[in-house]
Amino acid sequence: MTTVEDALVRLEQTEPEIRAWVRVDADGASAAARQVADGPLHGLPFGVKDIIDVAGLPTECGSVLRRGRVAEGDAWLVDRLRQAGAVPLGKTVTTEFAYFQPGPTRNPHNPAHTPGGSSSGSAAAVAAGVVPLALGSQTAGSLTRPASYCGVAGYVAPVGAWSTQGFTGLSPSLDAPGLLAARVADLAAAIEAVDGTTAEDPRSMRVLVWRGTELADIDPAMLDVLERTARALGADALDPVLSTPELADAHAVVMAYEAARTLAAEARHPESLSSHLNNLLERGRKTPEDEYRAALITARTARAAVLKLLTRVDAILGPAAPGPAPHGLDATGNPVLSRPWQLLGLPVVTVPGHRDPHGMPLGLQLVGHPDRVGRLLGVARRAEEAIQ
User: Fold this and answer.
1) Is 173 a catalytic residue?
2) Model-level pTM greater than 0.85?
3) pLDDT at 87 over 80
C-alpha cells in the first residue's frame, strides 16, 4: 500500500516533468499520517483537485482571482475520506474554474500531449504513480476525459448523490464530485469507504453499446477497442431511444446559463479571466430563460426514458473520449461524449487498459442507473478484466 512517504518520493521524481500539483502539504500530510485513526483507507494518500476545500490550504481554482484564499474547513468528500483513514497530500492542478483554460500539467504517457481537463492534475498524479487516489469533479467531461487520456479509472457520482459542499462549482444542475484511481477495484474500495456502496459480482449481465459517432469523429483505434470489449461482454446495440446531439446541445445551454450566474462576481473582472471563460459567461448571459427552461425539460424527459431502460439493462458502454489525448498543451480535448450523460445526472465509470498503436491510453465509459452503482462497478470490473 502506498504511504505518504512513498508518495512524496515519487512526486519528487515525477513532478518536474508532469506538473500535476499546485501545492504539496508534505509536513501536514506526514503529521496526519502519524495520527490517523484506523479505517478502510488507513494512511492512504490522496490528491485533491484545486476547486475542492482542504482545511488550512488555499483553494485557488486555477485563477488569479482566488489566489491565497485559504479554506476554513474540509469539503464533504475530503472529510469522508479522512474519516476512512485517508490523508490529503495536497492540491492538484485544475483548469481555470474547472473550465477549458489549460493548466501546466502534462500527460504522463507522453508529456507532449494534454492530460485533459479539468481534473487534469488529479488524473496525471494517479497515472504517474504518485497517489493511488485523487478527487475530481465533472460538469461536462472534466473527469471522464482526463481518466481516459491518462489511462486511469474514474468515477463520476450521480448528480446530487454526493454533496458538493466545499466545492467551487460551475453549474449546480450538472456539477458532480468524483474519484480517480489506478484500477476499478481501487475506485470501488474508495466508493465503499465514502458511502457504503459495495461492488456486485454480476454473474449475468446485459450491456448495451453506444458508439458516439453521431456526436464526434471517433478514432478508429477507439472504435476497435470498443467493439472488442463489447464482444467480450456480450453487449447488444443501443436502440435509438434518445437523441444524444439534442442532449449535448441542451447540456451546453444549461452549463452556460448557470455558469454565468454562478460566476457573476468573477465576470466583473474579465481582464483576469481567460477568453474561454469569458466567452462561456457571455453566452450564458445572452441565453434567454425560456431556452434554459426548455433545456431542463429536455433533460427531464430524456432522463425518465433512460432510467426506464437502465432498469432492464446493467450499463451502457461507450467511448470515454473521441480518441487518445491530442498532441499539444494549449487545449484539453473534446468533452462532447460526456455531455449527454452528465445532463442526465447519471453515474459513470471510466475503464482503463486499452492503448492505441502509439501506446497512448484509450478509456471506455460505462453509464449506469443512479440507484444501482454497485451493479455498475461490478460490470466495470468485468470490463477491465476483459481488457487484460
Assistant:
1) no
2) yes
3) yes
